[in-house]
Amino acid sequence: MVTRVLYPIHEGPQRNLMESDAEEVLYGGAFGGGKSYALRAWAVTYCLQYPGATVVLFRRSYRELEDTHIRALQAEVPLTIAVYKTGRHDFEFTNGSVLQCRYAERPEDVNTYQTAEWDALLIDELTQFEQLTYVGLLSRLRSSKSWWPGPRIRAVATPLGIGHNWVKERWVAFAKPNEIKRAPLSEGGMTRQFIPARVTDNPTLMESDPDYLERLRSLSYEEYQARALGSWDTFTGQFFQRWRPGTHVVTPFDIPPDWDRYIAVDYGFNAPYAVYWIARPPQTDVAYIYREQYGRQVKLNEQIYRAKQACEDASEKIKGVIVDPALFGKVNVKGERIDSMAEDWKKEFYPVIKGDNDRVAGWRLLREMIDWQEGPDGKSIAGPRLRIFSTCSNLVRTLPTLVTSKNRPEDVDTDGEDHAADAIRYGLMHMFRGRGQQGQQRSYHMTNKGLVVRPIT
After folding, report:
1. Separation CA 324–CA 355 (nearest Å)
2. Among 308, 291, 281, which Cα is nearest to 385's?
3. If we measure between CA atoms, which residue out of 58, 44, 52, 14 comes closest to residue 145?
4. Domains of the chain, with CATH numbers?
5. H-type alpha helices, 59-130
6. What are the distances in angstroms from CA 140 to CA 341, 378, 429?
7. How far apart are CA 219 and CA 234, in angstroms?
């Protein structure tokens, strides 16, 4: 693609980024790998090569843009080529191209850019973004210009962060390093490439600060592997560290008619709403999450209708609906008091139960139910108490990506996509810590020898 490079570029990963023909590229790896510099080089080069281009560069906040890119661009790009417009946060090029500097802290910030039209999308530190934010921004990548070479996404990232798992899945685990591979149509169908980078790929840094790599050795093992070596196989801060897809995710089966069934709800509109069906075998401390409804910008009455329709289609009896406690708050509209949103659920389901929002206790319970024990032979598994049907794809996707809050170690970071986890937390708290508890319970575990049922003492 590149015919002119304003920036000096190192051979290796930086050159690969500049010359890649893939549509979705992740340039990812260690601190000091020259990622942010390479992203600016790509942006400026694109603006120079295609007069009249509109390129957007995202970080989570304008402060981060200022510290990482805006000041650097002002120093690197001569005024004869581009001028920075402070009020708009735009670099206007003399050939008519524009490099826009924008932010998106949360998924709902994407709505700010509904009418935007970008020729190329750039994101710095992609692992700091939720997947919903990324997917939302992709929808603004379009152009009617005759010269447009097609969508171009260039993202850089360091391992760890709230988006670690989905970024790893979308690029790192999708294909071999540097291989260009087309994604399935369900994921956009664009060609995708992961270009790894380590600190040693930046000879400028190695020459100016030869002790930098040694200083990174003071980090924890996980952080050193990720920050220094660019490894994506470590995930420090993961809240549910005992999660294993092969252990917790099961093939769907018909729920026996004598199992108790509940519905658990976390409300959302701009943020996703999450509705889950939870079944509990008689006299046990085990639960199966067996059905999911999940989405954004779905009105409350439609959420309720979908849940009711699913129950009617399955001819199943629900013992109760445990809903987001926020739905019990009264809403003031034009000075008039109206029923809470929980009342809408009560019109179709009974009973409707206010969820227990003791977050620390709820997460502790969920951790206990996710936990499992390895047998003496090192092969058999006792537990876990929680199993999730593979059809509950959003819960399976988001639960292992939750990270520990920096300010509250017993809570999850609410910047993560925690809507599905919140819903099942409400449900499980009622079923195992609240009014949904049963009297005499038995432990009910699957081992390599089959089902084992034993009384709880």
Report:
1. 6
2. 281
3. 52
4. 13-228 (3.40.50.300), 245-455 (3.30.420.280)
5. 62-65, 71-76
6. 33, 50, 40
7. 13
CA angle 370–273–190, rounded 5-degree value: 90
Of the candidates 413, 394, 401, the one whose C-alpha atom is nearest the C-alpha of residue 168 is 401
* Widest pairwise Cα distance in the chain: 80
Enumerate the H helices of 377-418 as residue ranges. 393-398
Per-residue model confidence as pLDDT tens for the chain (457 residues): 443 446 887 788 889 999 999 999 999 876 655 788 899 999 999 999 999 999 999 999 999 999 999 999 999 999 999 999 998 999 999 999 999 999 998 888 999 998 899 999 999 999 989 898 999 999 899 998 999 999 999 999 988 777 887 898 899 889 999 999 999 998 889 999 999 887 666 666 556 666 766 676 666 655 676 666 667 765 657 788 788 888 899 999 999 999 999 999 999 998 899 999 999 999 899 999 999 999 999 999 999 999 999 999 999 999 999 999 988 876 555 545 456 889 899 999 989 999 999 999 999 999 999 988 866 665 556 779 999 999 999 999 899 888 888 788 889 988 888 999 999 999 999 999 876 665 434 433 333 333 333 433 3
Neighbours of 236 (CB within 10 A): 18
**Alpha-carbon dihedral of residues 360, 364, 365, 367, nearest 10 degrees?**
140
Q: What separation in angstroms does the CA of 377 have from each of 246, 297, 372, 381, 443?
A: 18, 49, 15, 10, 21
Closest C-alpha to 420, from 305, 276, 285, 312 = 276
Cα separation of 341 and 207, whole Å?
Answer: 62
On whether the CB atoms of residues 421 and 398 are closer than 8 A, the answer is yes
Query: For residues 363 and 433, what is the distance between their CA atoms, to the nearest angstrom?
Result: 12
Between CA 122 and CA 184 the distance in angstroms is 22
Give, in order, the Cα–Cα distances in Å from 223 to each of 90, 159, 227, 236, 424.
35, 9, 6, 7, 31
> Percentage helix, strand, coil, to 5, in the chain?
35, 25, 40
The CA-based angle 61-273-355, given to 5 degrees, is 110
- Cα torsion 364, 365, 370, 376 to 10°: value is 90
